[in-house]
Structures are given as C-alpha cells and as structure tokens.
Amino acid sequence: MELASYLAGERWSDHPACTHPLLAALARLVNDNVGDESRAELVELVPSIIGLAGDDLRVDARLALRCATTALPVAAAERQLALAVSVLAAEEMLARLDGAPSGRMSERSREAMAQVPQAAEQARRFSRAARITEKGFRRYAAPNAVQLSVVGIVQACVPDPDRLLRELLAGAIGDCSALIRGVGPAAGAETPREEGAVPVHA
C-alpha cells in the first residue's frame, strides 16, 4: 500500500487516500500473510487499486461478501458460523441499499453456504434475531469479515493459500472497480433471488 500512495503522488503511507479503506485493509492483510515470492507477485496489482475510493457502503458490502464467500468453503469448522453470518449480513446490507426484499441472495453466496449446511442454518437463525445498522456494518461487521476471512484462508487445509489470497485480492479489486468506475461485473452481481426461491429456466 505504500507503493500505491507513492504512485498516486501522496505521502508515503500504508493507508493511502487514493484507495478505499477496506480494500486497503484487505491488501495489507494479504500482503502480510503470503510468502516472499507471492508478495512480489502482488506488486502488479498495485496500479489497479489507485483511485478506487469513495464512501458508497455497497463497496464495503461487496468486499465483505467477496471475502466471506471465498473463505467460507475452506475455513475450519470453528470459523464457519461467523463467516456464514458475514455472508448473510453483507447480502442483507446490499438488499437494503438496493431497496430489494430481505432474503435476497446471490448465486455465489448460495454456493458457499451450501457447502457448510450446518453453519448456514445456524447463521440464518442468528441473523433472523439481529439487525445491523449501516454504521455498525461499516465500522465493525465489514472489517471483521475481511480479517476473519483472511485468517480463515491462511489457516485452512488447502494446497496453496497464497494463491487463494492473491485471487481474493484480485477479485476484490475487480468488485471495487465495477462499483466505483463501472468497469466489469461485481462479485455476486448476477441477478440475485430471494432465499428459498426456485430459479426458472427457459
């Protein structure tokens, strides 16, 4: 992130104003948790994060959703409930911001939740009894989802966690670019449907 601040003409900092704070936090977490070889590969992503800034809460929700849906299928059992709750919270926030019905869920989220059915059911019961505010989501829920997701991937029993973390960061950058610059599809941007709805095929 220091390099991003330099390239953007800002003072040397790992909290550059040219990048959305939550995306910058994800980039720092990924950078701090990959090996030296993988860290060097992250440099090529730096130019693409410059200018990805703004205060649209949808960005926070998309980032939290990207992270949680990436980590949920591979995370250890003790982390799955919190990650599943993070998925539902991000989906609920996006639905609220879009003026859509509660319970709307993207296919990416459905697929992630389907891989951990017990945690998913517990998360649904928990989420029905809780309602998060927009302020609380931005300040606590979204950052916690990002941090928990990175830790979950780092500690997961997967062959190449560094690759998964790099793909996560690249996908998150793409999501931010889609929302802020209107370039490319965001994660979960396929037509969502309400929880329990049955898709109709032509």
From TrEMBL:
From which lineage does this chain's organism come? Bacteria, Bacillati, Actinomycetota, Actinomycetes, Streptosporangiales
Protein's organism: Nonomuraea cavernae
Instruction: Please identify the protein, giving its name as recorded.
Output: Uncharacterized protein
